[in-house]
């Protein structure tokens, strides 16, 4: 079953070296193994970053920084041991901050085992990424095509106020900081508009609204 494979984030308050080291520390308890680092280059025709095709094997985030510390941006490829799939973190510097897009194998959103139902692992992962990145917003779904561009919080908030975000096709996931939309207002808007029948609303302990169709139970 095919699924979207691109998750976009708003700009993050990290330097590139701090993000790389912090990402490794965040992923280590989840049994992610770093396998490769790839180079991003600015494409003047597209006016955005793009994958150059240049890669190197590496075993640690420190090694990735030694290899690609002077590049415009990097893509780190990790093997997710528990589900035998790869995940790619694409990131680059923008005005002293970090732009991030995460690419997943198309099977990842549907992973299940004896303990987790379909979509539950991926939803938990995206929720935990919100806590690590402290992004204002993130979005995953069919409307997020492969594009090296940060997600604009104003666009996401506008789609919530219009109700458009709640009607998006499955699978989808959006995280919005309570600093942008307080708990009561987010709940009121979710209850006021027509929505996809699988869409659920929750609030994380790290301070985010989550609107998701990933979990089926």
Helix-strand layout with pairing:
Layout: E1 6-9, H1 16-27, E2 32-43, E3 48-57, H2 61-68, E4 73-80, E5 85-94, E6 97-104, H3 120-133, E7 137-141, H4 153-162, E8 172-177, H5 183-192, E9 200-203, E10 208-212
Antiparallel strand pairs: 1-6, 1-7, 2-3, 2-4, 4-5, 5-6, 7-8, 8-10, 9-10
Helix pairs in contact: 1-2
Descriptive notes:
- With 217 residues, this protein is of the alpha+beta class.
- It has one domain.
- It is 25% helix and 33% strand.
- It is built from 5 helices and 10 strands.
- Strands 3-2-4-5-6-1-7-8-10-9 form a 10-stranded antiparallel sheet, sandwiched between helices.
- α1 runs antiparallel to α2.
- The model has no long low-confidence stretch (mean pLDDT 91).
How far apart are the first and last residues' alpha carbons, in Å?
A: 19 Å
Large-scale geometry: globular
Q: What count of structural domains?
A: 1
User: Roughly what percent helix?
Assistant: 10-25%
How many helical stretches? 5
């Amino acid at each position: 079953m095919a699924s979207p494979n691109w998750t976009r984030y708003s700009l993050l308050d990290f330097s590139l070296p701090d993000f790389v080291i912090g990402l490794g520390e965040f992923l280590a308890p989840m049994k992610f193994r770093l396998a490769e680092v790839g180079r991003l280059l600015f494409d003047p025709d597209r006016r955005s970053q793009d994958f150059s095709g240049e890669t190197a094997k590496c075993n640690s985030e420190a090694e990735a920084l030694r290899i690609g510390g002077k590049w415009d941006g990097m893509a780190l490829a990790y093997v997710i041991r528990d589900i035998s799939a790869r995940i790619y973190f694409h990131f680059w510097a923008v005005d002293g901050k970090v732009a991030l897009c995460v690419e997943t194998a198309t099977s990842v959103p549907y992973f299940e085992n004896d303990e987790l139902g379909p979509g539950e692992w991926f939803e938990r992962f995206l929720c935990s990424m919100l806590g690590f990145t402290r992004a204002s917003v993130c979005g995953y779904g069919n409307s997020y095509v492969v594009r090296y561009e940060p997600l604009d919080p104003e666009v996401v908030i506008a789609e919530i106020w219009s109700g458009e975000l709640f009607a998006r096709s499955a699978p989808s996931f959006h995280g919005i900081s309570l600093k942008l939309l307080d708990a009561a207002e987010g709940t009121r808007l979710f209850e006021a508009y027509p929505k996809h029948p699988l869409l659920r609303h929750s609030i994380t302990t790290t301070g985010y609204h989550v609107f998701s169709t990933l979990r089926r139970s």
